[in-house]
Each structure stands twice: as C-alpha cells, then as structure tokens.
Amino acid sequence: MAVSKDLLDILRCPYCVSGETRKAGDDPGRLKLVCDGKWLVCQEPDCQRKYPIKEDIPVMLIDQGDKWMNTAIEDLPEPGKLVEERPMSASSPSAPVATVPTTDPMILVGVGVAILAVLALVGWLMMRRSEESCAECDQD
Ligand SMILES: [Zn+2]
Fold first, then answer.
1. CA–centroid distance, residue 42 to ligand 1 (Å)
2. If you measure from the C-alpha of residue 43 to the centroid of ligand 1, how many angstroms do you get, rounded to a whole number?
3. How far does the centroid of ligand 1 lie from the alpha carbon of residue 80, in Å?
4. In this predicted model, what pLDDT tens digit does every residue of 60-112 receive, in sequence order?
5. Are 62 and 68 in contact, with CB atoms under 8 Å apart?
6. Ligand 1 centroid to 130 CA: how many Å?
C-alpha cells in the first residue's frame, strides 16, 4: 500500500509549477517521498512545502503545503485520514460548523397546506353560521 511510482513521477508541488510562483527550470517542483511514504516534500530549496499522503492519496493543496513548510521532516506527524473525524461539539476554526438551518421545502409545503385547510374550515363554518342566522331572521 503506497503511492505508485507512476503517480509520483507526474506529481509536482502545485506552488512551484503554477502562476507567478512557478520556479525556473524545465521541471520545477519535484517531490520526494519521506517518512515511510507518508509525506511528500518539495525539492525546491526555497520552497520545502510538505504534502501529507492520506490513505495513499497525496493531498496536493498549497494551503496544506504552507502549513508544514516550516516543520522539519522528522517532526512531521501522522498524515491522518482523508476525511477527518470531527467531534459533534468541536468548534475548530479550520472546520466551521454550518450555522445555516437546513429548511426542508416539503415541510414548508406541508405547513402551507395545513394553514390553507384551517382557513377553509373557518370560512366554511362562518358561512354556515351566517346562513343559519339569516334563516332565523326569515322565520321571524
Ligand atoms: Zn514547492
């Protein structure tokens, strides 16, 4: 279980191959496998970004590389799982809990139908009552 060599051959540090931060040379941003194949380190001398390999999937995101660029290779932690397990009560700044309430449209439709049904019933009762009172009037 490891990242295949074919994949490693084509993977490059995203910071060093794209945009204005592209490094000089024909093939910048080469990566080296370290820590028993758990981390990839950019070989550009002034980059040193490190990318975790989670469950055999290299996480090639610049913000991930930034996070570890000042960490020595021997201090790198276990890369962890691809999908982090988040405790329900956690309020981690990197994983904001969604505060937008999820509104099920079917609930809204149900409430609307219920309100209409009540209004129709009230209206029907009032019509009946006025008809009855008029009938009484006619009798008198
Ligand atoms: Zn790099």
1. 5
2. 7
3. 22
4. 999 999 999 999 999 999 998 888 766 665 455 555 555 656 677 788 888 88
5. no
6. 83
Report the candidate in 18, 62, 17, 53 with the shortest Cα–Cα distance to residue 32: 53
Q: Residue 1: what residue type?
A: M
Structure tokens at 39: 């981390």
pLDDT digits (tens, 9 = 90+) for 2-54: 678 888 889 999 999 999 999 999 999 999 999 999 999 999 999 999 999 99
Ligand 1 centroid to Cα of residue 15, in Å, is 5
- Of 56, 16, 67, 15, nearest in space to 33 by CA: 56
- The model carries a pTM of 0.59
Provide the pLDDT confidence category of residue 116 given band limits of 50, 70 and 90. very high
